[in-house]
Amino acid sequence: MTQLTIGIDIGGTNLRAAVVDPAGHVLDIEQLPTPSTVDSLETAIAHAVGTLRQRHTVGAVGLAVAGFITADQERVRFAPHLPWRDRDVRDRLSRRLGLPVVLEHDANAAAWGEQILGPGRDAGTWVLFAVGTGIGGALVHDGSLYRGAYGTAPEFGHLTVVPGGRACPCGKRGCLERYCSGSALETTALEYIATGRHPDSMLAGIFHSRPEEITGRSVVRLARDGDPLAKEVIDDFALWLGRGLSAVQEILDPELIVLGGGVSADADLYLPGARAEMEASVVGAGFRPLARVEAASLGSEAGMIGVALLAGQTQLSPSSTGS
């Protein structure tokens, strides 16, 4: 990687594009709400790239997508929070942008950033557990991303944890990410308010006067201020996160689990409870080594940085450049 690249993290809520140098430093950022249609999404990507190219000379673009990517990294098969369905995203956008494009799962992209610049550097087998609007996951073994036979592994967020539970945008019910994510904080808060818990809490007061302000961020902010209802919502989040981490431990037995995504910035609020639930839930509790759990070092920028580094390092074939 010898020149600047653009890394774009396309989540269910926001589209963020960053100019990244070869050392992984973010030089400039553009952010937009994530559009809900294919045409508007691809137009937003082109707009963000065009705006950044007015200020910087870049050689390639990386797209980190919250969805299933084909093993050849050319198409988005399905994305629960995005409009693409079996879409040849890489070549379409490469032609539109006039630049080489690398397509990657958002959690894989974030994991690559942490592998190059974060705690993954010192781990042989480790997992990224990314918590944002939903949940993403990545597995790194001996310095390589594990993608599975068809390019979709691992998918932690859509493990069914409550049969017949909350509806998920993926089409299923009771997925882990409906109980443990930024959007789940809002859902849990609304459910608790509806049952009359802590009616005098500030969170309940906000709901009755300005219900549109009940968001994951407002729950976190009020929990830090000591609001009893918000703290209970965080405790519920920690419980489900701990159960999710115990499943990761059971299935993959990693030495390290890195918590990424936008919610990772507030890990101090929920990580102790999640760790305790993980230790209590795992089989053989007390008689086996468990993964250490750390917050991602790159925070919410990990996906942009990781996919930008991949865009700079990948030797693209002629077909992948849109030629």
Secondary-structure blueprint:
Blueprint: E1 5-10, E2 14-20, E3 26-33, H1 38-53, E4 61-65, E5 68-69, E6 76-78, E7 85-87, H2 89-97, E8 101-105, H3 106-117, E9 125-131, E10 135-141, E11 144-146, H4 182-194, H5 202-209, H6 216-224, H7 228-252, E12 256-260, H8 267-281, E13 292-295, H9 302-313
Parallel strand pairs: 1-4, 4-8, 9-12, 12-13
Antiparallel strand pairs: 1-2, 2-3, 5-6, 6-7, 9-10, 10-11
Helix pairs in contact: 3-9, 4-7, 6-7, 7-8
Give keywords.
13 strands; Nucleotidyltransferase, domain 5; alpha/beta; disordered C terminus; five-stranded mixed beta sheet; 323 residues; globular; 9 helices
Structural description of this entry:
It is a single chain. This protein is an alpha/beta fold. It folds into two domains: 5-111 and 301-321, ATPase, nucleotide binding domain (Nucleotidyltransferase, domain 5), CATH 3.30.420.40; 122-296, ATPase, nucleotide binding domain (Nucleotidyltransferase, domain 5). The protein has helices at 38-53, 89-97, 106-117, 182-194, 202-209, 216-224, 228-252, 267-281, 302-313; strands at 5-10, 14-20, 26-33, 61-65, 68-69, 76-78, 85-87, 101-105, 125-131, 135-141, 144-146, 256-260, 292-295. The strands form three sheets. A five-stranded mixed sheet has the order 3-2-1-4-8. Strand 1 (5-10) and strand 2 (14-20) form a beta hairpin. The longest helix has 25 residues, at 228-252. The protein is globular, with a radius of gyration of 20 Å. Belongs to the ROK (NagC/XylR) family. This is Glucose kinase. InterPro entries: ATPase_NBD (IPR043129), ROK (IPR000600), ROK_cs (IPR049874).
